[in-house]
Structures are given as structure tokens and as C-alpha cells.
Amino acid sequence: MAKYAAAIDQGTTSTRFMIFDHAGKVVGLDQKEHEQIFPKPGWVEHDPMEIWAATQSVISGALARTGVDPKDIAAVGVTNQRETTVVWEKATGKPVYNAIVWQDTRTDTICNQLAKDGGQDRFRARVGLPLATYFSGPKIKWILDNVPGVRAKAEAGEALFGNIDTWVIWNLTGGPNGGVHVTDVSNASRTMLMNLETLDWDPEILKIMGVPRAMLPAVRPSSEVYGKAIGALAGIPVAGDLGDQQAALFGQTCFSAGEAKNTYGTGCFMLLNTGTKPVQSKNGLLTTLGYKIGDQPAVYCLEGSIAITGALVQWLRDNLNLIQKSSDVEALAATVEDNGGIYFVPAFSGLFAPYWKNDARGVIVGMTRYVNKGHIARAALEATAFQTREVLDAMNADSGVNLTALKVDGGMVYNEMLMQFQADVLGVPVIRPTVAETTSLGAAYAAGLAVGFWSQVEDLRANWGKDKEWRPKMDAAHREKIYKGWKKAVTRTFDWVE
Asked: b/e map of 295-311 (b: 16 or more CB within 10 Å)?
């Protein structure tokens, strides 16, 4: 009888492998960072071969550390940074170009050209997304247009596309020797190529974008057996696939319409379960797939995506050397009483929800000689909370339901100052679960459900436990005053790129 379910969590800055027991508790993990490649301003790339090597390394590492026998693992799920685009040769498994990361803005010209006919919302009714550099479709087009010889290979089915989930699953199930070329509905819904109603590639949009169907993976449910692993996990069913934010929603057991979570990672992503019908946003949110379990109806979400949150702390660390390690930001921010009158709007990759402005760039406003590095650290943390408030306001407006509490997860939820400020700015309690690594947990859940390790979704609710809750302490007048200042600061980022 299997004792565990496992997950590969391939994120923007690192890859981890996690093993969970039946109660959803962490048995062990291993994690490895990979290089962030910035060839030009606004360009962000990863080396897919480095990511696959890191994936193999963390699988072996976690098994060695825990002493878990792979035979005791019921199934493995995959969760991933979404929209990051890989095109590779089917015969060799070699990428034709580096992975173009979701934060990358090089496709702004492509998006602007596509928007000339029908505007930024040209495809929104069908795919739930605005035309933006964030999504995979324009990135595929860029590779096909700019890497010699790839388009002919793609049309012949000799070059394959995948978001990172597809790349990992293909390699994990054999690569050039019979690797399975699949994605799930949650990842497919981030390409701008999948129709929300049919849950399959939209032929008309493929034609307009110039993306050959032959290069695209099969769109499958998020929980089903896709194939068997090779290597260190040889013979184990690969049975779950969810984009990282959908996996976190699943791991937070937000299975009912109206339940929401916010993940604080490189960016910040708030998802609200809207049930089995897609809800079109009027307030700058994305309509996206939450998950699909086997042959059950698909579940949809509204999502507010914020490009830069944890990445801003990394920027303070790596580019300015203000701190030695990311966790030092809290102590530095605590050296001051408040933000000293400054706001830091980190529109490094343009602005995502609810603005969708590719031409915005980051600003620090309100600078005086009084301001010191403590204020900058504090303003960087506050930026995360303010951006989350903007998304929550949009969600309340779209759904007609006022959120009463926010479930949170991800790396930044151990920052006490940020979590308290988040509760203050939202005016609702913020709740952290006992297992904050809900992304990996969600992928393990999806895989375990597919093989009967867990029998039904409702069984998973019993595993969820509250670790800590922050209640708002700020008075409403002060809350609205500082939020008004933030909204003013955001307008200063607009139209920067000519």
C-alpha cells in the first residue's frame, strides 16, 4: 500500500520536489535555484536544460534525504510557473531557444499589432485574457518568427511547444523515447490559444497567431494518469498537472464557488473559485481554468495577477545589495515607523491586473532627503499589499460577493509585518494554513486523486488547518488615505515606454 504522494514544483526562480503523507503533511523536500537570464531590458529567459537537470537533482535529493522508497509513492504531480514558453526538437529533446519567461516583455510589438484589429480584448470572450506580453501565444509566435527553421519544423510536428509543465512531463515520461506531450486545462488556459468553452485549442486564434496545431500538446484534465515516470521515479504514475496558482487554490482546498486564496511568490496571484461556468471580468481580471478532475466538469476562476512582489525583494538584494538575504527585508523595514511618504510601484514588466499596461515601468515617488533604505524596504513590502488590495477590489466588483477573509500562501507569508499590513489595507482577516507550501500540495493532491490515494476532493478539506490569522488594526480613514496615495503613485508609471 503506497504511503505518499509527491510533486515536482517548477517555479520561476527554483525547482523543488516534495513528498507528502496521506494527511497532507510534508515528509521531505529538496530545492534548487536556477539562473535568471536578462539578455536585454525587459527580456527574461531560463535555460530549459538547466531546469530539467535541476528537476532530476531535486528528485534524487529528496529521496536520499528522506530515505523514502520510490515504490511507496502512489503518484507524482507537476506544478509550474505558467506562461513560460519552451519550444524544442521532438527527435533530440533540445530546446530551439531559451525558455521565454512569463515576465518577459519582448512581445509587446506582437500584442500591439494583434490589438489593431479589435483592441486589447480582441480574444477575451473566447480565452478570458487580454492581449498582453504575459501569455504564451505571442511568445510562441516570437520564437517561430525569430529562430530560423523552427516554423517549418513546427508545421511538420518536429518541434514541440509546451509551458514548463509540458516540458517536465515530456522529459519525465521518456523525452525523445516516447515522452508524453500533454498539458492540462489550467496551463492551456494561459496560452491565449485555448477556448474556455471547448477546453481545446481555438482554430481561428491559432490561424491569426500563426501557431501550427501540430506543435501543441494534447489538453487533458488536471488529475488523470498521463504516463509512467522514468529515472529515479521509474514506474510511478505521472498523474497531476496544474499551473502553480491553480495548484495553490487546490492545495488551499478552495473547492466551493466564492472561496479565494492569494499566493505570494515572485509575483502575487489571487484566485477566486467561480464554479463550473466562466465569469467574464469587467474590471481587469482574467477568466481562467481552476482545475478539472478526471471526467468531472471543469471549475473556473477569476484571477488577479501581479507581476512583481517577491521579485522586488530579490531586486533589493541582488541589484541594490540593500540586504544580504531576502528574509532580511523585514528587519530593515522595521527600522522605520512608516514609509516616509514614498511609494514604490514595481512595474518592471509593465502593469498586470487590473491595468494591463505593457508600457508602464517602475517608479519610486515622494522622495525627499528624509528617506533612507529602511523606508525603501518598507515601501517595497507595502507595494505587495497595495497591489493585492487593487485586485481584491476588482474581484468584489466582478463577483458581487465581498470577500470576508483571505487565505494566503507562498514564501512571503512568514513576513509578519507584511501580513499585518495586508490585513490592515484590506480590512479583512488574513489566514495562513499549517502547510504554506500549498502549490506543491495541490499538485500532489491532483496526482493522488487520479490513482485513488485520496478517494474524493472533499476528503482533502479535512487536511487543511489554520496556522495563524492576522486581523486588521488600522482605522478606516487612515487606510483609505494611504490607499489613495498608492493609486496616485500608480498613475505615474503609465505610458513610460514610447
From this structure: eeebbbbbbbbbbbbbb
Backbone φ/ψ region at 42: left (φ over 0), alpha (ψ -120 to 50), beta:
left
Residue indicated by cell numbers 515520461: 173
Q: What is the pLDDT of residues 437-478, one digit of tens each?
A: 889 999 999 999 999 999 988 889 888 888 999 999 999 999
The Cα–Cα gap between 92 and 276 comes to 40
Q: What is the rounded CA–CA span in Å between residue 350 and residue 357? A: 6
Q: What is the Cα–Cα distance from 416 to 382, expressed in whole angstroms?
A: 12
Show the CA angle centred on residue 49, arms to residues 80 and 65, nearest 5°: 65
- CB count within 10 Å of CB 216 equals 24
Neighbours of 49 (CB within 10 A): 15
- C-beta of residue 418 within 8 angstroms of C-beta of residue 410: no
The residues pairing with 33 across neighbouring beta strands, listed in sequence order, are 14
CA atoms within 13 A on the CB side of 209: 28
Q: How many CB atoms lie within 10 A of CB 41?
A: 10
For residue 189, the SS3 value is: coil
Beta carbons within 8 Å of 118's beta carbon, 6+ residues apart: none
**Cα(126)–Cα(280) distance, integer angstroms:** 10
Q: In this structure, what DSSP letter does residue 95 have?
A: B
Separation in Å, CA 220 to CA 73, 183, 189, 290, 370: 22, 6, 12, 13, 56
Angle at 357 between CA 378 and CA 487, to 5 degrees: 40
Dihedral (C-alpha) 265, 267, 243, 174: value to the nearest 10 degrees? -80
Count of beta carbons in the 10 Å neighbourhood of residue 462: 10
Question: Among 422, 453, 435, 314, which Cα is nearest to 22's?
Answer: 453
Task: Write down the number of H helices and E strands in the chain.
Answer: 16, 23
CA distances to 164, 264, 335, 415 from 411, in Å: 21, 6, 22, 8
**DSSP annotation string for 60-78:** HHHHHHHT--GGGEEEEEE
The string of pLDDT tens digits covering residues 254-311 is: 998 888 899 898 888 899 998 998 989 988 899 999 999 999 999 999 999 888 888 8
Give 61's strand partners: none
Q: Is residue 219 within a helix (H) or strand (E), and if so which, with residue range?
A: strand 218-220
- Which residues have C-beta within 8 Å of that of residue 113, sequence separation ≥ 6? none
State residue 198 phi and psi, 5-degree precision.
Answer: -85, -20
Instruction: Kindly give the interhelix angle for 48-66 and 164-172, rounded to the nearest 10 degrees.
Output: 60
Rounded (to 5) percent helix, strand, coil in the chain: 35, 25, 40
Q: Report which DSSP code applies to 39.
A: S
> Mean pLDDT score of the chain, rounded to an integer?
94
Cα(34)–Cα(11) distance, integer angstroms: 10
